[in-house]
Amino acid sequence: MRIVVINHVTLDGIMQGPGRADEDTRDGFTHGGWAAERGADDVITAAWGRRLAAGSGYLLGRRTYSDVLAHWNTQDSPFRDALNSAPKYVASNTLSEPLLWPNSTLLSGDIPEAVTELKKIPGNDLHIMGSGVLIRSLAPFGLIDEYLLCIHPLVLGAGRRLFADGFCPTTFHVAEATPTATGVIIASYRPHSSTSTGAIL
């Protein structure tokens, strides 16, 4: 399996709380919902739809898993059944089985090691949404194959960043980039193979 990060980010790299005001208020964050105005762009919807097609699954951190479960399973939305039926792997050393969301498997202990074993299983892509802590724990081991980022034309100046201080040094090549009418750039980045060594090319 390939591991693909799919996230909204601002020009200053903020990934916190893109969808709604109460999504993630940690550290007093007050800008929640910053991607909502442009997130319904037809080009973005199509790009995400292609990636999240039937058969793909999810790899999520504990907080994102709990938030998505709490939000989408209370919504009358066409996404609810699709999310419930998709395979979900949850990286957590605080949750315990059985997990509440259908088709969910707990990954615990050494998370990078567990994901290394998971990647050996043939299958469709697993997508990481949100889950900044999980992303930062996997990146130094070269376990993330691609970052599909919707880069929004705004700067927030505060919040949790995707590539925060201490992120492992990495170089990427751009596999694809598409501008949208709302000013968002949808870009697919793939880390060079030397990522796991922490080297900069």
Automatic annotation (TrEMBL):
Residues 7-184 form the Bacterial bifunctional deaminase-reductase C-terminal domain. It comes from the Bacteria. InterPro entries: DHFR-like_dom_sf, RibDG_C. Pfam families: RibD_C (PF01872). This is Dihydrofolate reductase family protein.
